[in-house]
Each structure stands twice: as C-alpha cells, then as structure tokens.
Automatic annotation (TrEMBL):
Its cofactor is phosphate. Residues 3-131 form the Trehalase-like N-terminal domain. SUPFAM superfamilies: Six-hairpin glycosidases. This is Trehalase. Coiled coil: none annotated. Residues 219-590 form the GH15-like domain. Pfam families: Glyco_hydro_15, TREH_N. InterPro entries: 6-hairpin_glycosidase_sf, 6hp_glycosidase-like_sf, GH15-like, Trehalase-like_N. The lineage of its organism: Bacteria, Bacillati, Actinomycetota, Actinomycetes, Micromonosporales. Its EC number is 3.2.1.28. One of its GO terms (molecular function) is alpha,alpha-trehalase activity. It is an enzyme of class 3 (hydrolase). Pathway: Glycan degradation; trehalose degradation; D-glucose from alpha,alpha-trehalose: step 1/1. It comes from Phytomonospora endophytica.
Length: 596
C-alpha cells in the first residue's frame, strides 16, 4: 500500500517529477513528461503497478530526510540497530535525456539494504520486455522496452529477476558508496552513455543553488517561501515555460471518494498566479517564459480559450479511466486527462490579465503580438461575461452566475483600461470602461446579501465561497470597505474550522442537487486558508493573520511541501501533491505579512 501523502518528497528535472516515500520507495514517475504515462504508479495501487525501492531490510529502521540546501537533492538517513546509511536521490535538470540517480552511503556500522525494481509502462499496465545488456563501457545493465519507451537501470549492485520484478540485497559498511541510475530514452535509439554520479550531483546542486540565489525576498519566513518557490519552479516544463498544477493524478480530495482529478496540466489561473509569485520575488526569466508560453498557447480565436492546456500548449485533454488501477487507498476512479478543459470559467480572463499587468508594470514590454492578443481576449469577454459559467472550482453541476467569476471579469476590463491609460497602449477603452462599470454595478446589486453581510457564491445563493476573499486584493473594492470586511467575517464564520477554510459547503443543496454535481465531502482547500491570512493582513489584523499562518505552516510535511487539501477528520494531507496553488498562495500570504 502507498504511504500517507505527506510522507512523500518531490524530485524534478524541469520536465517531469518523481515522488519518493519516507520508506525509500519511488512510487510515482511519469516519463518523459509530466503528462506521460507513469512507469512507477504504486501510489495509485501497489508495488505490482511499478516502483523502485532502496531501503534497509530491517523493519525496525527509522528515517529522517532533508533537501540539501536550497535544492531538490534529497537526502534520507536510515537508522537501524546495526548502523546508519544515507540515500541521496536527485534528477539532474533535463539535458536531452531523463535520468534519476540514487546514491547509497554507509555512515556507521553495517546495514543490510534491499532493492526492489518493478517497472510498468502506461500507468502500471504494461510489463516491458526486460533483459540484461552491456552498455558502452562494458558494464552490465538492465534494459526494459515497451513500444516507444525504453529504460535502462545501471548500478554497482543490480537486482536479480524473479516473477516479473527485480529484487536483491546488499550490505553497506561505514564508508561504502554505491551508485545507481535509471535513464529513459526513446526505444528506437541506442542506449545512452552512463553519466558520472559525482559530476551530475555537483551540477544539480549548482543549478538549484544558483537559481535560489536570484530570490529577492528577504522578509519573514524566507526559508519556507523559498521552498515554495523551488516547488513552483520544479512544476515548470522548461522546454515551453508551462507550469503544471501538480505532478500527479487522482490523489483523492477525500480518501475513498470520487473527487480524483488529473492535475498534470497547465491551468491558466494557477500559472498566472504563480507568475505573480515569481515576479514578486525576483524571477523575471520565468515570467517572460510563461508569458511566451501563454501567448503561443491561446493564439487563435479568443472564443476557443480554454481554462487549461498541456505543457506544450496541447488543447485536447480527453478524460478517461485507468480501470486496472485500484486508486490511492481504493479511491477510484483513477482519471487520466481532465474533462474540465472544456468548461467555461470567466475568472480565468481576470487572472491572466492581472498577471500580464503585473509583468508589464515590472518592465516586461509588450510587443506587436502580446498586447493585440490581450485586447482581443477582452473584446471577446465583453460579449460573454454575463453568461453563467462553471466557476473557479470547476463545478460539474449546472453553470451559474458565480460572483467571483463576475468580479474577475471586472478585473480583466480594469487591467485593460489601465494598460491604455498608464502605458499608452491602443484599445477600445471607452467600451472597456463601460463594461467594467456595468459588471461592478451588477455585482454590487446582485452579488451582495445584506442579511448575510457578505458577497455570495452565486447570485441569490445565500451561501459564501472562499474565492470571494479575492475581492479586496484584486481592487474591486477597497480592502477596508465594509462589504469586503463583512465577506471576510462570513468566510471566517461559515467556512473556517480551526486553521482550515473550506472552499464552499459541498453539502449545500440546489433544486438540481449539490451545487458542484458531486457527492458531498472533501478536505479543506489549503489555498483558501492562505487567502484568509492575506485578507486578515491586508485589513490590518496582522497579529491574527500571523497566528493563522503559523498554524498552517504546521500542516506542511517535514520538507515544507503541501498537497491540495488537508482533511482534519483523519489529520492528513489529501489531493494531488505537491500542489502549485497551495504553494503560490503561501508565498502571497507571507509577502502580505512582510509588508508595512
């Protein structure tokens, strides 16, 4: 069985990512891209679905771990009654090949180590053709081929084949150093040459430390902010600049439930907010690359704008079920692809236009392609903003006039108007101003509930939504406006449980059933809790905001990583992991606490 989600660590090479458990098992890895088929899928089933475990054979072993400095190089130290051993795991930033390295070092005494290598292509479904070969240097290696994919396992001690898997043991003494590596390559090509572990380790540490030194943030909680920024960088597909929402699929929002989604795609909303986090902390190159990805991806008819795309800009993200996988602790179905890509979510326009405005204000100049495309998107929104949509939470129920979507539509027009007025860019500014005012008047008339003293989830709903916390921070109303303060209080009262804030009430009923069209029940969305921190800080309640923020930091795992949600009933992280939205809102909250 897989481990609790928070017991996993992240490795990445800026093209894909692996999850390594505290038990020394790599239980998730897709190759060659984030959205490719998994070669290790044990986290969605068991060891038969693919994993690579290196750990002491003694069941009494305990483990502690850390990232080396400001990097994604992971060190796990195992302690047994007979000695200590360190396992170092890392993936060098991609250089035309995908490598995963594991180094085992004896620290004290003598430790018997076990290795299990179970390779399954296509999300644990395909058993490859596996054989022992000799590489260019004449060293023995294990080769696995299935269709277009090939993998090679090299190591100072190779496991033995038995019953469609490879396993074995070896003994480590103080001072022993053993290296292992796995390389993916197209099956029609020759086996790649072996890379030197010392050289790759030095280069990997050098890359991440050099990147981290560019961080301009030196305020409170810098270490956890930098770890979140490193996580956001690790979720970026370097070849195009796109950023996935998470490197996993179908880690459930409720263990045993059906809210299991594939997050290995680029949501415009998440990526736009991540761009703001990176710009606010000094990472202009990432912002420039993301803007280039965005402009290429959304080019075309503005009415064809999707809420998400593939890392290369792909539009077709058809959703299907991997029915041979039982799911994380039986949480089925396991979904590949995401049907929500066909939804209409008007808030995306606001998030994108706001992020591009921040980029513009920071000095990233517009060109004869970037600004005309933005103007076209806004003109398209002018014809459609009044229509119902599926909202920020991708409701699978009936489309509705969600208040947050209307507010973010206002943001889109507001940023377009300011681009004309501040940066002297061309555009239909009078029409944009008129539409901006029309949206604002409608939201104030239909989206605010006097009895609740709060804006509502959708017009006439009588319920609140944590996304409404963005109303003040996005400038729709001043942060000290009584209606904004009332909304903050309503969210605090209606949706908060301890340090956690629920997105909305999943059990709230409409004539058609639940508002999201799914059975009720999920964890608390961590981004909502960080939104509340920022809202409290922005409204002058910094002491309260700081207390809440530090409670939330207590929910991160030992490496500072966060999943999408936290379930207080079982005391565990839930949802896809690690989640960009959780980490980018953590950064925003920390920056708000550091202001003033």
């Amino acid at each position: 069985m897989p481990l609790p989600i928070e017991q996993y660590a992240l490795l990445g090479d800026l093209s894909t990512a692996a999850l390594v458990g505290l038990d020394g098992s790599i239980d998730w890895l897709c190759l060659p891209r984030f959205d490719s088929g998994a070669v290790f899928a044990a986290i969605l089933g068991d060891s038969e679905n693919g994993r690579w475990k290196i750990a002491p054979t003694d069941e009494r072993a305990t483990a502690t771990r850390r990232y080396v400095g400001s990097s994604l190089v992971l060190e796990t130290e195992f302690r047994t009654p007979t000695g200590r051993v360190r396992v170092t795991d890392f993936m060098p930033p991609r250089d035309r090949r995908a490598d995963l390295f594991r180094r085992v070092e004896g620290i004290d005494g003598t430790v018997e180590m076990g290795q299990e290598f179970v390779l399954r292509f296509d999300y644990g479904r395909i058993r490859p053709w596996v054989r022992r070969v000799h590489d260019h240097e004449g060293r023995e290696a294990i080769s696995a081929v299935a269709g277009p994919d090939a993998l090679c396992l090299r190591g100072d001690v190779l496991p033995d084949a038995s019953d469609h898997r490879h396993s074995g043991t070896f003994t480590v003494h103080k001072g022993t150093v053993l290296d292992f590596s796995m390389t993916w390559y197209p099956s029609h090509e020759r086996l790649p040459r072996c890379h030197d572990t010392d050289e790759r380790l030095k280069a990997t540490l050098g890359y991440w430390h050099a990147w981290s030194e560019r961080c301009s943030y030196n305020g409170p909680y810098r270490d956890i902010v930098l770890r979140s920024l490193l996580t956001l960088k690790a979720l970026t597909y370097a070849e195009t600049g796109g950023m996935v929402a998470a490197p996993t699929t179908s880690l459930p929002e409720q263990v045993g439930g059906p809210r299991n989604w594939d997050y290995r795609f680029c949501w415009l909303r998440d990526a736009a907010l991540s761009l703001r986090s990176l710009l606010d902390t000094g990472f202009r190159d990432e912002a420039r690359a993301w803007r280039a990805w965005l402009l290429r991806t959304v080019a075309g008819d503005p009415e064809d704008l999707q809420i998400m795309y593939g890392v290369g800009g792909e539009r077709r993200l058809s959703e299907w079920t991997a029915d041979w996988l039982p799911g994380y602790f039986g949480s089925a179905p396991v979904r590949i692809g995401n049907a929500a890509h066909g939804q209409v979510q008007f808030d995306v326009y606001g998030e994108v236009m706001d992020a591009l405005a921040v980029a513009r204000d920071s000095g990233l100049a517009e060109d004869d392609f970037s600004w005309p495309l933005q103007a076209t998107l806004v003109d398209s929104l002018a014809e459609r903003w009044h229509q119902p949509d599926s909202g920020i939470w991708e409701m699978r129920g009936e489309p509705r006039p969600f208040t947050h979507s209307r507010v973010m539509s206002w943001v889109a027009f507001d940023r377009a108007v300011k681009a004309v007025e501040k940066h002297k860019l061309p555009g239909n500014v009078e029409r944009w101003k008129k539409t901006r005012d029309e949206i604002r008047n409608e939201v104030l008339a239909k989206g605010f509930d006097e009895e609740l003293n709060s804006f509502t989830q959708y017009y006439g709903s009588g319920t609140v939504d944590a996304a409404l916390l963005e109303i003040g921070s996005m400038g729709f109303l001043p942060e000290d406006d009584p209606r904004v303060l009332g909304t903050v209080e309503a969210v605090n009262r209606e949706l908060r449980q301890g340090p956690l804030v629920w997105r909305y009430l999943t059990h709230a009923m409409t004539p058609e059933g639940t508002v999201d069209g799914l059975p009720p029940g999920e964890g608390a969305f961590l981004a909502c809790s960080f939104w509340l921190v920022k809202s409290l800080a922005d409204s002058g309640r910094k002491h309260e905001a700081k207390e809440l923020f530090e409670e939330l930091l207590g929910l991160t795992n030992d490496l500072g990583l966060l999943a999408e949600e936290y379930d207080p009933h079982i005391g565990r992280q839930v949802g896809n992991f690690p989640q960009a939205f959780s980490h980018l809102t953590l950064v925003h909250a920390a920056l708000a606490l550091g202001e003033g």
